[in-house]
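Hey, weird one. I pasted the Cytochrome P450 2G1 sequence into the form twice and got a warning about non-standard characters only the second time. First submission, copied straight from the form history:
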Amino acid sequence: MDITGLGTLVLILLISCIVIYSTWNSMYRKRNLPPGPTPLPLIGNLLQIKRGEMVKSLTEFGKQYGPVYTLYLGPRPVIVLNGYQAVKEALIDQGEEFSGRGKLVVADLIFGGFGVVFSNGDRWKQLRRFSLMTLRDFGMGKRSIEERIKEEAQCLQVELHKYKQTPTDPQNILVQAVSNVICSVVFGNRFEYENSEFLKLLRLFNETFQMMSSTWGQLQQIIPFIMNYIPGPHQKIDKVVARQLEFVSERVKKNQETIDFNSPRDFIDCFLIKMQQETQNPTSEFNLKNLLMTVLNLFVAGTETVSSTLRNGILLLLKYPHIQEKLHKEIDVVIGQNRSPNIDDRSKMPYMDAVIHEIQRFTDILPMNLPHSVIKDTAFQGYTIPKDTDVYPMLCSVLRDPTQFTTPENFNPEHFLDDSGCFKKSDAFMPFSTGKRICLGEGLARMELFLFLTTILQNFTLTSETQITESDITPRMAGFANVPISYKVSFVPR
């Protein structure tokens, strides 16, 4: 190509860029969306988000642009909500309008809009109603949810005694114990801690969680149209999930072969019975695809979040032994050593209740929440949010709102205690989110956290050969989830 031709090509490209930018800028300015950092065509605000620090970046934008602002992930706008008042107004006061499930790229690749957590519209309503009803019946009238957790807590205690005070990374054992509770609901049975297939499956869950929170996962959420074609660890997600679905599929097949339609054993049986009942209903969402994805939803959600919270809790008690000592005293007074804890004890143990709430607040397992979307054009704080626009209600900004908590950046159980030492509720306590999309398993998780942690502390003193620092306990606030650091703890019998 000669110089004249090259000059013409450069001129055409330059004019094209100017036209694209002018068109984009015009469209961007005309929208009645909340203010926010100025985006670029195609990549949006990518260059303004610190690499690997999406949560911190979004929090900083909130300080600059206010509690409601617009961020562009690639070419699509996302409304970000910061602070208790903005999140409450959206998810509670205007809960119906904000009840859609927004785009979470990795989850969309995995679930494809199926299953109870990542679906929308009538599919979500049918599956949520059914799941809530079945989880409330937990065990289909045979055993209560509390008895299942207490049984697993005793199994955990026996296993911890086997360590004989050897410094141990508690990740695997806690994940297994917590997962066994949801397994008993979904599959009708628990797994032995030595079960290698079960361990492999749990490692896959953790790998998925880590991947979604990594820099690669964050980039995939921002610019999926580019990242989907770039090699990297994020491309492993299909294989990881395929193995998880294979496990769930095998369990469903076993149930199909042995089911007694008059005597359901678990969640899968209940779903299969519902599928049979609705075979003639053309609008029914009870099909095999939704069964597999809902079971996987429950399995993952019921495993990683609670086990990560417990791991964070133990780490915090290693850092603050005086808090652990106060918990031991309360346990000794209320429960003693001659019986197992039960859920009725919680109302008599305000300090334990406060500590567990503060563990959840401080560790902030899902700082960005799961994304929401508006189901119709919505007026909000003087702006217009178009239908299907994604919304990020930042739970970290609620759980660390200085107007709601006196020392939001510090671990302080006094946030949940009044002057008399009685437990004090806080409307800003939203680790399970709030509104119509509040976590299905909130009641189950709260019960697990109390019974597991109380059982551990009734039987053991937690010690570490390593000095735990402020940096160790501070949540990383990087991406999708706050996963605790690896550490070792000794479980010393009391």
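That's the output from the first submission. The warning seems to come from a hidden character in my clipboard, not from the data itself. The longest strand covers residues 68-73.
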